[in-house]
Amino acid sequence: MNKKPIVGITMGDPAGNGPEITIKALAHFDMYERCNPLVVGDANILEQATHFVNRPDIKINRCEKVSDAKFIPGTVDVLHLPLIEDVSRFEIGKVSIEGGNAAFQCVKKVIELAMAGEVDATCTNALNKEALNMALEHYKGNLSDGHTHFDGHTEIYATYTGTKKYTMMLAHHDLRVVHVSTHVSLREACDRVKKARVLEVIEIAYKACKDMGIENPKVAVAGLNPHCGENGLFGTEEIEEIKPAIEAAKELGINTVGPIPPDSVFSEALGGWYDIVVCMYHDQGHIPLKTVGFVYDREKQGWKAVEGVNITLGLPIIRTSVDHGTAFGLAGKGISNELSLVNAIDYAIHMAAGQK
């Protein structure tokens, strides 16, 4: 094997569009100039996907171990996990226990490979949270060392890498956001805005930028309330929790600015004022990223671009992901856009190079 990083790519829920966009992404032969991609999944599902996207010329190389991979354009190497009993009878576009289990097993396996140093980075296709947790409940934790529920990829990665301090980063080119909280109710998200957690996320964000080669990262911190609370008129979280966290970060030598009203901080970040934005909750960060990354063509009545990368920071291994769901409504039609996956693989390559 050459010195290009090996990137382990999960197929995602086999009922979704993950297998299709994987074939499309790896049909870009220049991908093999940048990395050695290895898909973790059911080879039969990937073979089916080549027909969905009308690329029967793409060959599937079934691998039992990483060293079986060829890493040559025109051949997709698949670390084969026999997860779907009968591909011809498996329903595309449907939530199922079998699909949820398959997606989970792929994630668990790619984490094991990364922790063992057999792959340099991991990249995940989308899983369906309902299907995932149906499978975990069905098997009563036997799949996951006793766990019967996960909120998503991030929590699976944190569990199997033993990570306590982590956060999600979304990126679209040089617009980057990280989150104080993600998959909780908005009411609970407000309660989670505490000095210790905000400071922790600022530190993780700063380190991530440094790891990506940004010499002196400038970290912007968004407020929680309208107008950052107007000196307590609309809320006191900025005064009591966010500002103290920012001051503590400055004492650590981190170039931190804020709190900045959320209705202006992202426009400023797009203008190059900041390298990363610390957001207080899920939608505060997701909405601006998807607004610039997801572009719908009105005339053609279709998605012109579905871009954006989801990255878990704070892990001992690299994990990037597509920034979209399983697209059950598009699965099997061969029309899903692979740009988000291409971007996610490229981010994984870039981060692997940074670590080396």
Automatic annotation (TrEMBL):
<dbReference type="InterPro" id="IPR005255">
    <property type="entry name" value="PdxA_fam"/>
</dbReference>
<dbReference type="GO" id="GO:0051287">
    <property type="term" value="F:NAD binding"/>
</dbReference>
<keyword id="KW-0560">Oxidoreductase</keyword>
<dbReference type="Pfam" id="PF04166">
    <property type="entry name" value="PdxA"/>
</dbReference>
<dbReference type="GO" id="GO:0016491">
    <property type="term" value="F:oxidoreductase activity"/>
</dbReference>
<keyword id="KW-0520">NAD</keyword>
<dbReference type="GO" id="GO:0046872">
    <property type="term" value="F:metal ion binding"/>
</dbReference>
<comment type="similarity">
    <text>Belongs to the PdxA family. PdxA2 subfamily.</text>
</comment>
<keyword id="KW-0479">Metal-binding</keyword>
<comment type="subunit">
    <text>Homodimer.</text>
</comment>
<protein>
    <submittedName>
        <fullName>4-hydroxythreonine-4-phosphate dehydrogenase</fullName>
    </submittedName>
</protein>
